[in-house]
């Protein structure tokens, strides 16, 4: 499972002009363990996965059959095979994204998209994880990060350990200097239009026990 790397960091790095070696490193086991502990202290459940295949199995285990699922645009989710699973019809979940794309009426489709951020389970990638425990994500419209602060019943985040950086300041720099240029290159390649940093969320603490889960994967995924 998993999609081709046309829109992966490796496939986009040349035209994006990013410092991939500096921003896409695999941290030490100690750094990963300390980060997972710091995230956990902020009210976020952390489940570690060895690789992308194990990450997908974790999703199949923690999302119950019949659950309503929605996801934001995420290279990480593509790379672990999540989209392939949904499209196979074998997930056992109710796919809100398919319902949205099947709607021909622009007004109704926009309304479904707004409501989808309050799905039972909303899945998303992460742009950066500070070793102090904060999780950071940005997008242009808010269709992904709108679910993060409160709207989604359960927020399930999937990230490779390559997103780990020392501080919150570094996490914000990673967005500006690495994730955004790659996303902009992807947008130009896929749609012929540039992207921009429109909405950002810093998840620094979650009050509702069990609402947010981070699946932290021991390899490089997404950007």
What structural class do helix, strand and pairing data support? alpha/beta
Beta fraction of the residues? 15-25%
Average pLDDT figure: 94
Helix content class: 40-55%
What is the element layout, followed by pairings?
Elements: H1 9-16, H2 20-23, H3 29-40, E1 45-49, H4 52-62, E2 68-71, H5 75-80, H6 82-88, E3 94-95, H7 96-102, H8 106-116, E4 121-124, E5 128-130, E6 135-139, E7 154-160, E8 164-165, H9 168-191, E9 199-203, E10 212-217
Parallel strand pairs: 1-10, 2-3, 2-4, 4-7, 5-8, 7-10
Antiparallel strand pairs: 5-6, 6-9
Helix pairs in contact: 1-9, 7-8
Would you write up a description of this structure?
- The protein is an alpha/beta fold.
- It has a single domain, classed as NagB/RpiA/CoA transferase-like (Rossmann fold, 3-Layer(aba) Sandwich).
- The chain is built from nine helices and ten strands.
- The protein has helices at 9-16, 20-23, 29-40, 52-62, 75-80, 82-88, 96-102, 106-116, 168-191, and strands at 45-49, 68-71, 94-95, 121-124, 128-130, 135-139, 154-160, 164-165, 199-203, 212-217.
- The strands form two sheets. It has a six-stranded parallel beta sheet.
- A hairpin with a 4-residue loop joins β5 (128-130) and β6 (135-139).
- The longest helix is centred in the last third of the chain and has 24 residues, at 168-191.
- The chain is globular.
């Amino acid at each position: 499972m998993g999609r081709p790397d046309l829109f992966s960091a490796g496939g986009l790095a040349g035209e994006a002009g990013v410092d991939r070696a500096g921003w896409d490193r695999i941290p030490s086991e100690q750094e990963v363990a300390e980060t997972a502990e710091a995230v956990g202290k902020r009210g976020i459940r952390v489940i570690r996965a060895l690789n992308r295949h194990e990450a997908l199995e974790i999703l199949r285990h923690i999302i119950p059959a019949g659950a309503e699922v929605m996801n934001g645009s995420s290279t990480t989710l593509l790379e672990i095979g999540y989209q392939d699973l949904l499209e196979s019809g074998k997930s056992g979940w109710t796919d809100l994204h398919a319902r949205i794309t099947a709607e021909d009426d622009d007004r109704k489709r926009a309304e479904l998209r707004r409501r989808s951020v309050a799905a039972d389970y909303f899945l998303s990638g992460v742009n950066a994880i500070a070793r102090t425990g904060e999780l950071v994500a940005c997008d242009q419209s808010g269709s992904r990060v709108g679910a993060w602060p409160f709207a989604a019943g359960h927020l399930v985040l999937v990230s490779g350990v390559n997103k780990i950086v020392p501080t919150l300041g570094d996490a914000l720099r990673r967005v500006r200097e690495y994730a955004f240029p790659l996303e902009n290159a992807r947008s130009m390649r896929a749609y012929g239009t540039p992207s921009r940093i429109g909405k950002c969320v810093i998840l620094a603490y979650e009050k509702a026990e069990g609402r947010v889960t981070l699946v932290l994967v021991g390899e490089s995924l997404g950007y």
